[in-house]
Design a protein that fits this description.
Chains A, B: InterPro entries: Ald_DH/histidinol_DH, Histidinol_DH_CS, Histidinol_DH_monofunct, Hstdl_DH. Two copies of one chain form a homodimer. The first copy, chain A, is α/β, with parallel strands linked by helices. Chain A contains 16 helices and 14 strands. In chain A, a hairpin with a 2-residue loop joins strand 2 (103-106) and strand 3 (109-117). Strand 13 (343-346) of chain A pairs parallel with strand 14 of chain B, so a sheet runs across the interface.
C-alpha cells in the first residue's frame, strides 16, 4: 500500500480517482454479441457457451432433477449458514416495504403512491471457481418480497455443463426455479431481448466481469433497466486511535482478495494505527490462498494519514466508497458525518464480511464513486412507485382556476380546456 | 385517430410499440458538443449559445437584478396560481420523506437505512416560446425537501439574452438562485463536467429536445446520474360506459398538443363512447391554437375497442403509459388492476392537467414503456439511501460462524479471516 502523509486538499481529487479503462474494443465486441443474440436467439447462446464456457449444451434450462440432486449434495452446515443469512436478509428487506398514506393536498384532491413489483426481472450470477450463492440471496429475496411475478436466473455452466449445487440450493431456497445455463454478455442479451428458451425481462440485476458490465450498460438503450452501473469493488476504512490494527488489516485484505482491480483505502488521524495496520496486512497476507490477487490490489491501494477524524470523513465523502468501515469505538457518534457511501459498518466488530453475507443488509452496492448519486439494491429496486390521484368535483373546483392560469401562461390551451370543460359542466348543473 | 376494433392479442404488441428513431447522426453530433464543452468549458458554452440560441452573451449567470425585475413583471394571478401549485406539490412530496426503523435482524446485529440528499443536482428547463415554469416546481421542490446542498438551474436564453420572468419567479420561489443561461446538449455537458462558471453536479434532471435527451443518455457513461430515460410524452385513456366523451376528448387533446410525436391512445369496451369521443376530438381540435401540432400527433394515435374493461387494463399494462386516465365512475375500483403506469388519474374529474400543474403529484414520469421498470420523479430521486449496520461482540458471535462457513464455501478466505480474528480475540478475553 502506498503511504501518503497529510496530503494537501488540492491533492485529494487525484487520490479519490478510480483507474479509467479504455473501452472502445470491449464495446464493439459486446455490441456484436448482443446483436447476434437478438437476431439468432438460442442458436447464438449455444454457440457462445461452446466458445467461452467450453461446453456444448443440449439444454439451457436447469431441470428439476438437477435441482433435486443439488439439494442433497450441499453440506448441512452450509445449508444452515445460508438459512441464517436468508432469515436476516429477509427481515431487513421486508422492513423496507412501505404502504404510504393518502394525502389530501387540497380539499377534494387526494394523491398517493403504490409500490408495485416489476413484472419480470432477471438475475445474473457470475461463474468462476467459487459459487457466488450469497448474491442469489441478496437479489432473490427482495425480488420475491417485492412481488415480481417472473424471476429468472442466468449463470454460466462449468465445462461439464453443470451449475454448482450451492447456487442451485440458494436459488431453490428463495423460490427461483427458472434457471438457465448461460453466462457473459450473451446471458444479458438473452434476458434483454428474450430467446426461444429464455424469457425477456424488464430489469436485470447482478455482478459480472467487464463483458457482463458492458452488456448491462448497452442494453439500457433498448429499454431494459439495470440495477446500477458497476466498477471494481472497494472499501475505505476510517480508523481513529481506538481502531484495532489486526481487525483493520483483515478488512482491507477481505476487499483486496476480490480482484487485482479492487480498491482498498485506509485513512486515519493516528500514525501509529496506520503503521501497525500496514504491518498486520503484510503478516496476514502471507497465509492467504488468494495472496497473489490481494497483493496486486494492494499495490494500487493507499494508506493516508490525515489531521483529524473530521478530515477523514471529508476525504471519504469525496471518495464515496462502496463500503465504509468506521474502525472506532465512537463509530456511532461519527455516523452523522457520512454523506456519500454505499454501506457503512460501525465499530470494531462490524466487519465488511458481515454485510457481505449475513447481517441482513444488501451487498449489491454502488462502486466507482456512484455512491454520490446511487443507492444500493433494496426492496425498492424491484418495484416501481405508481402515483395515483383522485379529484372530486369540489376538488377540481378548488384547484381548477389555478391550473387554467398556469396552462394559459405555458401556452397550452388544450391543457386549460380539459379543466374549463369540466368546470363549465359543473356550473350548468 | 386510427380506429381498431377488437384486435386479437397477437396484434397487441404492434399496437403498444412506440416509433423508433435512427440516432447514429444525433449521437455523433451530441458527443462532439459534449467533448467540446469538457475541453473548452465556458468558451464552448458561449460559442454554442451564439450558434443555437442566436445571442452573444456576456454573462452566463443570471444576476440578482434580473431576478428582482422578474418578481415584479409576473402577474399577481399567475403568482397566486403558482403558489397554490407549490403548496400542493410540497405537501405531497414532503409526505414521501421516511425515517426508517432500526431493525435488529439477530440479537446484537442492527441494520438501518438513512436518506441523504444528493449533494449537487442540476435542473434543466427547456426554452421555446412558452416558459415551462411548472417543471421548476416539480424538480425544485423535491430537491429542496431532499436536502440537496447545491441546486443549479440551466435554461436557454431568448434572442435578447433574457430568461422568461415566470421561470425566474418560479425558481426564486422554490429557493433556486444559481441560474445559468445555457440550453441544449451544451447545458447538460456543463453540468456533467463543470466549467469555470457552471458547477459540476452529480445528477441531472429535466425534460428537453432530442439533443438534451441524447446528451443525458451519454453523460451517464462519465458517472453523472440522470432522472430517467426519456421519450415523447403520452397518455392512455381507459373509458367505460360511464366515461364522458367531451372530457375524454379534452384529455386526449391536452396530450396531443405537446408535440407532433406525442402518443395518444383511447381504449374502451363501449363502441358508442369511443365514437362520441372521436367526434368530440374533431370538434374541440378546431379551436386550438396548437391545432396543427395536435393534428399531427392524432394521426399516429389509436382508438381501440376491446371486449371488456379487464381487457382494457391488460392492454394498458402491456403499453405501460406515462399517464393513465381511468374515465369511469368506478375508477377507484379499477385502480388495483394497474400494473404498469407512471401516474394514474382516477375518475371523470381527475384530468391529466391537474397532475401536470397543481394536484401535488410529480409530472416528470417514465415514457416510452419505461413505466414497466421505472418510477416517476419523487423525493427519493434526489436522495440516496445509505445502509448502516452495527454488530456488538455478541452480535458477531451470533452470526460469525455462519459467515465463516459461507465465506469458505465461496473460497474467500480473507472474508472468513475478518470474522475469525475477531471471534478469536473474544475467546481470549
Amino acid at each position: 500500500m502506498k503511504k501518503v502523509e497529510n496530503p494537501p486538499k488540492e491533492a485529494w481529487l487525484a487520490l479519490t480517482k478510480r483507474p479509467q479503462f479504455e473501452q472502445e474494443e470491449l464495446t464493439k465486441l459486446v455490441q456484436f454479441i448482443l446483436n447476434d443474440v437478438k437476431r439468432n436467439k438460442d442458436k447464438a447462446i449455444f454457440k457462445y457457451t461452446e466458445k467461452f464456457d467450453k461446453v456444448a449444451l443440449q439444454e439451457l434450462f436447469v431441470s428439476t432433477s438437477e435441482i433435486d440432486t443439488a439439494m442433497t449434495s450441499v453440506s448441512e452446515s452450509l445449508k444452515q449458514a445460508i438459512n441464517i443469512a436468508k432469515a436476516n436478509i429477509e427481515k431487513f428487506h421486508a422492513s423496507q416495504n412501505s404502504v404510504e398514506a393518502v394525502i389530501e393536498t387540497t380539499e377534494g384532491v387526494s394523491c398517493w403512491r403504490k409500490n408495485v413489483g416489476i413484472d419480470k426481472v432477471g438475475l445474473y450470477i457470475p461463474g468462476g471457481s467459487a459459487p457466488l450463492f450469497s448474491t442469489i440471496l441478496m437479489l432473490g429475496i427482495p425480488a420475491k418480497l417485492a412481488g415480481c411475478k417472473e424471476i429468472i436466473l442466468c449463470t454460466p455452466p462449468n465445462k461439464e455443463g453443470n451449475i454448482h449445487p450451492a447456487i442451485l440450493y440458494a436459488a431453490n431456497l428463495v423460490g427461483i426455479t427458472k434457471i438457465f445455463k448461460v453466462g457473459g454478455a450473451q446471458a444479458i442479451a438473452a434476458m434483454a431481448y428474450g430467446t426461444e428458451t429464455i424469457p425477456q425481462v424488464y430489469k436485470i440485476f447482478g455482478p459480472g466481469n467487464q463483458f457482463v458490465t458492458k452488456a448491462k450498460e448497452l442494453i439500457q438503450q433498448d429499454g431494459t433497466a439495470i440495477d446500477m452501473p458497476a466498477g471494481p469493488s472497494e472499501v475505505l476504512v476510517i480508523a481513529d486511535t481506538s481502531g484495532i490494527p489486526s481487525f483493520i488489516a483483515s478488512d482491507l485484505l477481505s476487499q483486496a482478495e476480490h480482484g487485482a482491480d479492487s480498491q482498498v483505502i485506509l485513512v486515519s488521524n493516528d500514525a501509529a494505527i496506520l503503521e501497525q495496520s500496514l504491518s498486520e496486512v503484510q503478516k496476514q497476507l502471507e497465509v492467504l490462498p488468494r495472496k497473489e490477487i490481494a497483493q496486486k490490489a494492494l499495490e494500487n491501494s493507499k494508506a493516508i494519514l490525515l489531521r483529524s477524524v473530521e478530515e477523514c470523513f471529508e476525504f471519504s465523502n469525496q471518495y464515496a466508497p462502496e463500503h465504509l468501515i468506521i474502525a472506532s469505538e465512537n463509530a456511532s457518534d461519527y455516523a452523522a458525518l457520512v454523506q456519500n457511501a454505499g454501506s457503512v459498518f460501525l465499530g470494531n466488530y462490524s466487519c465488511e464480511s458481515a454485510g457481505d453475507y449475513a447481517s441482513g443488509t444488501n451487498h449489491t452496492l454502488p462502486t466507482n464513486g456512484y455512491a454520490k448519486n446511487h443507492s444500493g439494491v433494496s426492496l425498492e429496486s424491484f418495484q416501481k412507485k405508481i402515483t395515483f390521484q383522485k379529484l372530486t368535483k369540489q376538488g377540481l373546483q378548488n384547484i381548477g382556476p389555478a391550473i387554467e392560469i398556469m396552462a394559459e401562461a405555458e401556452e397550452l390551451q388544450a391543457h386549460k380546456n380539459a379543466v374549463t370543460i369540466r368546470l363549465n359542466s359543473l356550473k350548468n348543473v
